[in-house]
Amino acid sequence: MSAFIIHEDHINALVSYAKTKKLLGDFSAQQWTTELYQENVKSIEYRYPSEKEKYSKDISFQIDYYAVSRLRAIDILKMVACYEYQACEHQEWETSAAYKMCQRLKNYAVRNLPGYEEAVDEYRKCPPLRTSLPPRAIA
């Protein structure tokens, strides 16, 4: 089986990060934990119909202080990518609340990558490229 149920620690880390960064919106941390888990289960059940009803439909949120204090933006991006890969198998994925939360997490993490603030945001502002090659002579 190539798709699998993400461990609840993984989901709790994502939700803990979202909670501390105030990304939860109108949902509670528990609601997001449940939503992320259920979307993952829905994906597995869609991909592997014989797996239906094998998984519980709920897990409990527990704040993960390690995730809050130690995970970098790049870690969150990779963790979200892993989660999305396991949760995207069913046809309603892109309209799900879990998908929207993943987008929110990714957008926040990208804006917090080292060097993001200093990066050029408009092509016209890019410094000209410098090469060690002399300009070509036109024949």
What does this structure look like?
With 139 residues, the chain is mostly helical. It has helices spanning 8-20, 29-47, 65-70, 73-87, 97-111. Helix 1 (8-20) runs antiparallel to helix 2. The relative contact order is 0.17.
Low-pLDDT residue intervals, each spanning 5 or more residues: none
Biggest sheet descriptor: none
Query: What's the Cα radius of gyration?
Result: 20 Å
Q: Give the strand content.
A: under 5%
Distance between the termini: 62 Å
Helix and strand succession?
HHHHH
Shape: elongated
What is the average of the pLDDT values? 88
* Total count of helical runs of at least 4 residues: 5
Summarize the structure.
This protein has 5 helices and no strands.
Which features would summarize this protein structure in a list?
139 residues, mainly alpha, 5 helices
Map the helices and strands:
Layout: H1 8-20, H2 29-47, H3 65-70, H4 73-87, H5 97-111
Helix pairs in contact: 1-2, 1-4, 2-4, 4-5
